[in-house]
Amino acid sequence: MTTQAGPSRDILRFSTHRHLRQRILLSILSGKSIRIDGIRSDDVQVGLRDYEINLLRLAEKITNGSTIEISVTGTSFLFHPGLLPGGSYTHTCHIGRSLGYYLELLIPLAPFCKKPFDINLYGVTGEEGRDMTVDMIRTVTLPHLHLFGVTDGLELQIKKRGSAPLGGGQVIFKCPVVRTLKTIQFLEKGKIKKIRGVAYSTRVSPQFANRMVESARSILNRYIPDIYLITDVYKGDDSGKSPGYGLTLVSQSTTSTLHSSETLSVAGQTQTPEEIALHAARLLLEEISKGGCVDSKHQWLVALLMALGKEDVGKVRMGNLTPHTVQFFRDMLMFFGTKYKLVENSTTGEVDVSCIGIGYSNVNKSMA
Protein backbone atom coordinates (compact mmCIF):
# COMPACT_ATOMS: atom_id res chain seq x y z
CA MET A 1 0.00 0.00 0.00
CA THR A 2 1.38 3.38 -0.92
CA THR A 3 1.78 6.18 1.56
CA GLN A 4 -0.66 9.02 1.78
CA ALA A 5 -0.51 11.38 -1.18
CA GLY A 6 1.60 14.45 -0.64
CA PRO A 7 1.71 17.16 -3.29
CA SER A 8 -1.37 18.01 -5.34
CA ARG A 9 -0.09 16.09 -8.35
CA ASP A 10 -0.68 12.84 -6.43
CA ILE A 11 -4.40 13.58 -6.18
CA LEU A 12 -6.53 11.78 -8.77
CA ARG A 13 -9.29 13.99 -10.11
CA PHE A 14 -12.74 12.92 -11.25
CA SER A 15 -16.02 14.65 -12.04
CA THR A 16 -19.73 13.82 -11.47
CA HIS A 17 -21.30 11.70 -8.74
CA ARG A 18 -21.33 8.52 -10.86
CA HIS A 19 -19.12 5.65 -9.67
CA LEU A 20 -18.53 7.52 -6.41
CA ARG A 21 -18.43 4.35 -4.29
CA GLN A 22 -15.89 2.49 -6.39
CA ARG A 23 -13.58 5.51 -6.41
CA ILE A 24 -13.69 5.81 -2.62
CA LEU A 25 -13.04 2.05 -2.42
CA LEU A 26 -10.06 2.18 -4.80
CA SER A 27 -8.73 5.27 -3.05
CA ILE A 28 -8.61 3.44 0.30
CA LEU A 29 -7.06 0.28 -1.20
CA SER A 30 -4.43 2.15 -3.23
CA GLY A 31 -3.74 4.86 -0.64
CA LYS A 32 -4.20 7.55 -3.31
CA SER A 33 -6.13 10.73 -2.55
CA ILE A 34 -9.03 11.71 -4.79
CA ARG A 35 -10.87 14.89 -5.60
CA ILE A 36 -14.32 14.73 -7.20
CA ASP A 37 -15.80 17.90 -8.73
CA GLY A 38 -18.96 18.83 -10.58
CA ILE A 39 -21.27 16.73 -8.41
CA ARG A 40 -24.77 17.34 -9.80
CA SER A 41 -23.77 20.91 -10.59
CA ASP A 42 -26.56 21.15 -13.22
CA ASP A 43 -29.32 19.72 -11.02
CA VAL A 44 -31.95 21.79 -9.23
CA GLN A 45 -30.66 20.31 -5.97
CA VAL A 46 -26.89 20.52 -6.42
CA GLY A 47 -24.18 18.61 -4.60
CA LEU A 48 -23.86 15.42 -2.62
CA ARG A 49 -26.99 13.68 -1.43
CA ASP A 50 -27.43 12.85 2.25
CA TYR A 51 -26.78 9.14 1.65
CA GLU A 52 -23.49 9.95 -0.12
CA ILE A 53 -22.32 12.08 2.80
CA ASN A 54 -23.34 9.19 5.07
CA LEU A 55 -21.18 6.87 2.95
CA LEU A 56 -18.18 9.23 3.28
CA ARG A 57 -18.70 9.30 7.05
CA LEU A 58 -18.73 5.49 7.06
CA ALA A 59 -15.46 5.42 5.10
CA GLU A 60 -14.01 7.86 7.63
CA LYS A 61 -15.26 5.72 10.54
CA ILE A 62 -13.71 2.41 9.40
CA THR A 63 -10.33 3.92 8.47
CA ASN A 64 -7.64 5.41 10.65
CA GLY A 65 -6.41 8.84 9.63
CA SER A 66 -8.74 9.59 6.69
CA THR A 67 -9.69 13.21 6.06
CA ILE A 68 -12.64 14.49 4.03
CA GLU A 69 -13.10 18.08 2.90
CA ILE A 70 -16.49 18.84 1.36
CA SER A 71 -17.06 22.18 -0.39
CA VAL A 72 -19.73 24.60 0.90
CA THR A 73 -22.10 23.80 -1.98
CA GLY A 74 -21.39 20.07 -1.76
CA THR A 75 -20.46 19.89 -5.44
CA SER A 76 -16.89 18.76 -4.75
CA PHE A 77 -14.90 16.98 -2.08
CA LEU A 78 -11.34 15.93 -1.33
CA PHE A 79 -10.65 12.54 0.26
CA HIS A 80 -7.32 11.49 1.77
CA PRO A 81 -7.52 7.78 2.69
CA GLY A 82 -6.21 6.26 5.90
CA LEU A 83 -5.37 2.71 7.02
CA LEU A 84 -7.81 -0.09 7.86
CA PRO A 85 -7.56 -1.10 11.54
CA GLY A 86 -10.55 -3.50 11.54
CA GLY A 87 -12.44 -4.29 14.75
CA SER A 88 -16.10 -3.69 15.64
CA TYR A 89 -18.29 -0.85 14.40
CA THR A 90 -21.91 0.29 14.41
CA HIS A 91 -23.35 2.54 11.71
CA THR A 92 -26.83 3.86 10.96
CA CYS A 93 -27.17 4.14 7.19
CA HIS A 94 -29.27 6.80 5.48
CA ILE A 95 -32.66 5.46 4.37
CA GLY A 96 -32.18 7.10 0.96
CA ARG A 97 -30.26 3.94 -0.07
CA SER A 98 -30.43 0.35 1.08
CA LEU A 99 -27.76 -1.41 3.15
CA GLY A 100 -26.43 -3.06 -0.04
CA TYR A 101 -25.13 0.35 -1.15
CA TYR A 102 -22.92 0.54 1.93
CA LEU A 103 -21.95 -3.14 2.02
CA GLU A 104 -20.57 -2.93 -1.53
CA LEU A 105 -17.94 -0.55 -0.16
CA LEU A 106 -17.21 -2.57 2.99
CA ILE A 107 -16.99 -6.10 1.57
CA PRO A 108 -13.86 -5.62 -0.63
CA LEU A 109 -12.12 -3.61 2.15
CA ALA A 110 -12.79 -5.96 5.07
CA PRO A 111 -10.27 -8.74 4.17
CA PHE A 112 -7.44 -6.17 4.22
CA CYS A 113 -7.95 -4.90 7.77
CA LYS A 114 -5.46 -5.33 10.60
CA LYS A 115 -7.94 -7.25 12.78
CA PRO A 116 -11.07 -9.22 11.81
CA PHE A 117 -13.83 -6.82 10.81
CA ASP A 118 -17.41 -6.79 12.04
CA ILE A 119 -20.07 -4.13 11.75
CA ASN A 120 -23.69 -3.62 12.79
CA LEU A 121 -25.60 -1.75 10.08
CA TYR A 122 -29.08 -0.25 10.48
CA GLY A 123 -31.37 0.89 7.68
CA VAL A 124 -33.28 -0.38 4.62
CA THR A 125 -32.49 -4.04 3.86
CA GLY A 126 -33.68 -3.90 0.25
CA GLU A 127 -34.99 -1.52 -2.39
CA GLU A 128 -36.18 -2.37 -5.89
CA GLY A 129 -33.94 -1.57 -8.82
CA ARG A 130 -31.11 0.33 -7.11
CA ASP A 131 -28.79 -1.77 -4.95
CA MET A 132 -28.42 -5.43 -4.13
CA THR A 133 -30.54 -6.61 -1.22
CA VAL A 134 -28.91 -8.13 1.85
CA ASP A 135 -30.22 -11.53 0.69
CA MET A 136 -28.32 -11.34 -2.58
CA ILE A 137 -25.17 -10.20 -0.79
CA ARG A 138 -25.46 -13.12 1.64
CA THR A 139 -26.15 -15.81 -0.98
CA VAL A 140 -24.16 -14.53 -4.00
CA THR A 141 -21.63 -11.82 -3.12
CA LEU A 142 -19.99 -13.59 -0.18
CA PRO A 143 -19.53 -16.92 -2.07
CA HIS A 144 -17.59 -14.94 -4.70
CA LEU A 145 -15.08 -14.07 -1.96
CA HIS A 146 -14.68 -17.79 -1.21
CA LEU A 147 -13.10 -18.16 -4.68
CA PHE A 148 -10.22 -15.97 -3.49
CA GLY A 149 -9.66 -17.73 -0.18
CA VAL A 150 -11.74 -15.48 2.09
CA THR A 151 -13.81 -18.15 3.84
CA ASP A 152 -13.67 -18.90 7.58
CA GLY A 153 -15.72 -16.45 9.60
CA LEU A 154 -17.21 -14.64 6.58
CA GLU A 155 -20.91 -14.12 7.20
CA LEU A 156 -23.84 -11.74 6.95
CA GLN A 157 -26.60 -12.14 9.54
CA ILE A 158 -30.00 -10.57 8.89
CA LYS A 159 -31.29 -9.65 12.35
CA LYS A 160 -34.24 -7.48 11.33
CA ARG A 161 -35.75 -6.72 7.95
CA GLY A 162 -36.62 -3.18 7.00
CA SER A 163 -38.37 -2.46 3.71
CA ALA A 164 -38.19 0.87 1.91
CA PRO A 165 -38.98 3.70 2.47
CA LEU A 166 -38.67 3.79 6.29
CA GLY A 167 -36.27 0.89 6.90
CA GLY A 168 -35.76 -0.32 10.44
CA GLY A 169 -33.64 -3.30 9.41
CA GLN A 170 -30.41 -4.55 10.99
CA VAL A 171 -27.62 -6.76 9.64
CA ILE A 172 -24.27 -7.88 11.06
CA PHE A 173 -21.39 -8.34 8.62
CA LYS A 174 -18.28 -10.25 9.75
CA CYS A 175 -15.12 -10.85 7.74
CA PRO A 176 -11.75 -12.47 8.50
CA VAL A 177 -8.45 -10.93 7.39
CA VAL A 178 -6.14 -12.45 4.77
CA ARG A 179 -2.51 -11.81 3.91
CA THR A 180 -2.93 -12.35 0.16
CA LEU A 181 -5.71 -13.48 -2.18
CA LYS A 182 -5.69 -16.65 -4.26
CA THR A 183 -5.26 -16.50 -8.04
CA ILE A 184 -8.29 -17.87 -9.86
CA GLN A 185 -8.82 -19.69 -13.16
CA PHE A 186 -12.58 -19.82 -13.70
CA LEU A 187 -13.44 -20.56 -17.33
CA GLU A 188 -15.93 -23.44 -17.10
CA LYS A 189 -19.47 -22.31 -16.34
CA GLY A 190 -20.89 -25.86 -16.18
CA LYS A 191 -24.58 -26.76 -16.31
CA ILE A 192 -27.23 -25.44 -13.93
CA LYS A 193 -27.89 -28.09 -11.29
CA LYS A 194 -30.04 -26.34 -8.70
CA ILE A 195 -31.98 -23.19 -7.94
CA ARG A 196 -32.39 -21.76 -4.46
CA GLY A 197 -34.34 -18.76 -3.30
CA VAL A 198 -35.87 -16.86 -0.42
CA ALA A 199 -39.30 -15.20 -0.46
CA TYR A 200 -39.64 -12.72 2.37
CA SER A 201 -42.32 -10.41 3.67
CA THR A 202 -42.58 -7.71 6.33
CA ARG A 203 -45.79 -6.26 7.74
CA VAL A 204 -48.01 -7.99 5.15
CA SER A 205 -49.93 -11.28 5.13
CA PRO A 206 -47.62 -14.32 5.56
CA GLN A 207 -49.44 -15.83 2.57
CA PHE A 208 -47.63 -13.36 0.28
CA ALA A 209 -44.39 -15.35 0.65
CA ASN A 210 -46.10 -18.64 -0.20
CA ARG A 211 -47.78 -17.11 -3.26
CA MET A 212 -44.41 -15.88 -4.55
CA VAL A 213 -42.87 -19.35 -4.15
CA GLU A 214 -45.72 -21.01 -6.09
CA SER A 215 -45.57 -18.49 -8.93
CA ALA A 216 -41.79 -18.69 -9.32
CA ARG A 217 -42.01 -22.49 -9.41
CA SER A 218 -44.60 -22.32 -12.22
CA ILE A 219 -41.81 -21.09 -14.52
CA LEU A 220 -38.67 -22.66 -13.04
CA ASN A 221 -40.06 -26.21 -12.69
CA ARG A 222 -40.03 -26.51 -16.48
CA TYR A 223 -36.22 -26.49 -16.49
CA ILE A 224 -34.81 -28.48 -13.57
CA PRO A 225 -36.31 -30.49 -10.68
CA ASP A 226 -33.88 -29.40 -7.91
CA ILE A 227 -35.59 -26.21 -6.77
CA TYR A 228 -35.83 -25.22 -3.12
CA LEU A 229 -37.41 -21.89 -2.22
CA ILE A 230 -37.84 -20.95 1.43
CA THR A 231 -40.20 -18.41 2.97
CA ASP A 232 -38.89 -15.90 5.48
CA VAL A 233 -41.72 -14.10 7.24
CA TYR A 234 -40.89 -11.40 9.79
CA LYS A 235 -43.37 -10.21 12.41
CA GLY A 236 -43.46 -7.62 15.16
CA ASP A 237 -40.36 -5.58 15.93
CA ASP A 238 -38.18 -7.63 13.56
CA SER A 239 -40.20 -6.58 10.52
CA GLY A 240 -39.03 -2.98 10.33
CA LYS A 241 -41.16 0.11 9.81
CA SER A 242 -42.63 -0.39 6.31
CA PRO A 243 -44.64 -3.16 4.63
CA GLY A 244 -42.87 -4.96 1.81
CA TYR A 245 -42.14 -8.30 0.17
CA GLY A 246 -39.71 -9.68 -2.36
CA LEU A 247 -38.03 -12.71 -3.88
CA THR A 248 -34.32 -13.44 -4.40
CA LEU A 249 -33.35 -16.35 -6.68
CA VAL A 250 -29.92 -17.98 -7.13
CA SER A 251 -28.93 -20.69 -9.60
CA GLN A 252 -25.83 -22.82 -9.05
CA SER A 253 -24.02 -24.81 -11.73
CA THR A 254 -21.92 -27.97 -11.60
CA THR A 255 -18.79 -25.77 -11.38
CA SER A 256 -20.30 -23.50 -8.66
CA THR A 257 -21.11 -20.65 -11.06
CA LEU A 258 -23.77 -18.45 -9.45
CA HIS A 259 -26.37 -16.38 -11.28
CA SER A 260 -29.00 -14.39 -9.45
CA SER A 261 -32.03 -12.14 -9.73
CA GLU A 262 -34.41 -10.41 -7.37
CA THR A 263 -37.59 -8.36 -7.42
CA LEU A 264 -39.12 -6.37 -4.58
CA SER A 265 -42.38 -4.61 -4.00
CA VAL A 266 -42.33 -0.82 -4.42
CA ALA A 267 -44.06 1.39 -1.87
CA GLY A 268 -47.12 3.06 -3.38
CA GLN A 269 -47.39 0.62 -6.29
CA THR A 270 -49.86 -2.24 -6.27
CA GLN A 271 -48.00 -5.32 -7.47
CA THR A 272 -49.29 -8.76 -6.62
CA PRO A 273 -46.86 -11.32 -5.18
CA GLU A 274 -47.43 -13.36 -8.35
CA GLU A 275 -46.26 -10.53 -10.61
CA ILE A 276 -43.13 -10.04 -8.52
CA ALA A 277 -42.28 -13.76 -8.54
CA LEU A 278 -42.81 -14.19 -12.29
CA HIS A 279 -40.63 -11.15 -12.97
CA ALA A 280 -37.85 -12.48 -10.73
CA ALA A 281 -37.98 -15.91 -12.40
CA ARG A 282 -37.75 -14.41 -15.89
CA LEU A 283 -34.88 -12.16 -14.80
CA LEU A 284 -33.01 -15.23 -13.52
CA LEU A 285 -33.43 -17.03 -16.86
CA GLU A 286 -32.24 -13.88 -18.64
CA GLU A 287 -29.19 -13.64 -16.36
CA ILE A 288 -28.30 -17.31 -17.01
CA SER A 289 -28.67 -16.79 -20.77
CA LYS A 290 -25.98 -14.06 -20.67
CA GLY A 291 -23.49 -16.81 -19.84
CA GLY A 292 -20.15 -16.43 -18.13
CA CYS A 293 -18.97 -17.76 -14.77
CA VAL A 294 -19.79 -14.54 -12.91
CA ASP A 295 -23.12 -12.84 -12.32
CA SER A 296 -23.35 -9.45 -14.10
CA LYS A 297 -23.74 -7.58 -10.77
CA HIS A 298 -20.45 -9.07 -9.52
CA GLN A 299 -18.19 -8.61 -12.55
CA TRP A 300 -16.47 -5.57 -11.01
CA LEU A 301 -15.89 -7.34 -7.66
CA VAL A 302 -14.27 -10.40 -9.26
CA ALA A 303 -12.18 -8.14 -11.53
CA LEU A 304 -10.96 -6.18 -8.48
CA LEU A 305 -10.04 -9.24 -6.39
CA MET A 306 -8.37 -10.85 -9.42
CA ALA A 307 -6.16 -7.78 -9.86
CA LEU A 308 -5.29 -7.68 -6.14
CA GLY A 309 -4.20 -11.35 -6.18
CA LYS A 310 -0.70 -12.82 -6.30
CA GLU A 311 1.65 -11.89 -9.14
CA ASP A 312 0.23 -14.51 -11.44
CA VAL A 313 -2.26 -14.52 -14.31
CA GLY A 314 -5.91 -14.81 -13.24
CA LYS A 315 -8.61 -15.64 -15.76
CA VAL A 316 -12.40 -15.48 -15.56
CA ARG A 317 -15.11 -15.94 -18.16
CA MET A 318 -17.81 -13.26 -17.94
CA GLY A 319 -21.03 -12.66 -19.84
CA ASN A 320 -21.60 -9.37 -21.66
CA LEU A 321 -19.65 -6.69 -19.78
CA THR A 322 -21.89 -4.09 -18.16
CA PRO A 323 -21.11 -0.35 -18.61
CA HIS A 324 -20.32 -0.28 -14.87
CA THR A 325 -17.66 -2.98 -15.34
CA VAL A 326 -16.08 -1.18 -18.30
CA GLN A 327 -15.78 2.01 -16.24
CA PHE A 328 -14.33 -0.05 -13.38
CA PHE A 329 -11.58 -1.33 -15.70
CA ARG A 330 -10.71 2.28 -16.55
CA ASP A 331 -10.59 3.27 -12.89
CA MET A 332 -8.36 0.28 -12.07
CA LEU A 333 -5.89 1.54 -14.66
CA MET A 334 -5.82 4.96 -12.98
CA PHE A 335 -5.46 3.72 -9.40
CA PHE A 336 -3.33 0.58 -9.81
CA GLY A 337 -2.08 0.70 -13.41
CA THR A 338 -3.83 -2.64 -13.97
CA LYS A 339 -4.62 -3.59 -17.56
CA TYR A 340 -7.14 -6.31 -18.34
CA LYS A 341 -6.92 -8.47 -21.42
CA LEU A 342 -10.36 -9.06 -22.95
CA VAL A 343 -10.98 -11.87 -25.44
CA GLU A 344 -14.54 -11.98 -26.76
CA ASN A 345 -16.22 -15.12 -28.08
CA SER A 346 -18.08 -13.90 -31.17
CA THR A 347 -20.69 -16.68 -31.06
CA THR A 348 -21.71 -16.58 -27.38
CA GLY A 349 -20.81 -12.95 -26.60
CA GLU A 350 -18.91 -14.13 -23.50
CA VAL A 351 -15.65 -12.40 -22.62
CA ASP A 352 -12.54 -14.04 -21.17
CA VAL A 353 -11.05 -11.47 -18.80
CA SER A 354 -7.47 -11.94 -17.62
CA CYS A 355 -4.93 -9.83 -15.77
CA ILE A 356 -1.70 -10.18 -13.83
CA GLY A 357 -2.19 -9.73 -10.10
CA ILE A 358 -0.31 -6.87 -8.46
CA GLY A 359 0.57 -9.02 -5.44
CA TYR A 360 -1.39 -6.74 -3.13
CA SER A 361 -0.28 -7.66 0.38
CA ASN A 362 -2.24 -6.79 3.48
CA VAL A 363 0.27 -4.45 5.09
CA ASN A 364 -2.16 -3.80 7.95
CA LYS A 365 -2.09 -7.47 8.97
CA SER A 366 1.69 -7.85 8.78
CA MET A 367 2.10 -5.12 11.39
CA ALA A 368 -0.22 -6.89 13.81
TrEMBL record:
Domain RNA 3'-terminal phosphate cyclase: 14-341
Key word Nucleus present: yes
Pfam families assigned to the protein according to its UniProt record, in alphabetical order: RTC, RTC_insert
Keywords: Nucleus, Ribosome biogenesis
Chief location: nucleus
Domain of life: Eukaryota
SUPFAM superfamilies xrefs: EPT/RTPC-like
Keyword Nucleus part of the UniProt annotation: yes
Subcellular location: Nucleus, Nucleolus
PROSITE patterns on file: RTC
Location of the RNA 3'-terminal phosphate cyclase insert domain: 187-289
NCBIfam families: 18S_RNA_Rcl1p
Family: Belongs to the RNA 3'-terminal cyclase family. Type 2 subfamily.
Protein name: 18S rRNA biogenesis protein RCL1
Organism, as annotated: Kwoniella shivajii
